[in-house]
């Protein structure tokens, strides 16, 4: 059997098998949205993890989130938090306590079905997270 056909067959079988299992080479994709809770600068964050290759929700993952300000290296010391899975497949919750508003780089460390590390830069206001502010904006 030609190699390419063999590969196509393997891929087809993976699809037939339903949830294509994550392989060691797979990467994760994260969508993060945070809402401020009553305490100032505390945020409830919802993180949706998917397998970047298959698009399937990433279930049973261990997710640890650290936070730092790109504009202020070494200035902050936010303790990484472990997210908890919700009942929605691939969805996780984490409560972050930041030290000021502005752009924060969230470092998402994923392990379990696959191992990956992603950095998401988001702008945090008193209300929640949004797209990062302009890169050159003074802090
Ligand atoms: Cu800062």
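^ structure tokens above, recovered residues below v
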């Amino acid at each position: 059997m030609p190699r390419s056909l063999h590969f196509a067959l393997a891929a087809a079988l993976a699809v037939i098998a339903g949830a294509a299992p994550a392989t060691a080479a797979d990467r994760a994709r994260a969508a993060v949205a945070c809402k401020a809770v009553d305490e100032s600068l505390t945020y409830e964050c919802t993180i949706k993890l998917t397998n970047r290759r298959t698009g399937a929700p990433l279930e049973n993952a261990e997710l640890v989130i650290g936070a730092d300000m790109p504009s202020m290296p070494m200035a902050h010391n936010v303790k990484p938090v472990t997210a908890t899975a919700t009942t929605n497949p691939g969805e996780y919750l984490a409560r972050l306590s930041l030290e000021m508003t502005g752009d924060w780089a969230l470092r998402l460390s994923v392990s379990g079905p696959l191992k990956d590390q992603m950095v998401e830069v988001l702008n945090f206001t008193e209300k929640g997270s949004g797209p990062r502010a302009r890169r050159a904006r003074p802090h």
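Strands lie at 28-36, 42-51, 62-68, 81-82, 84-85, 91-97, 102-111, 116-124, 129-131.
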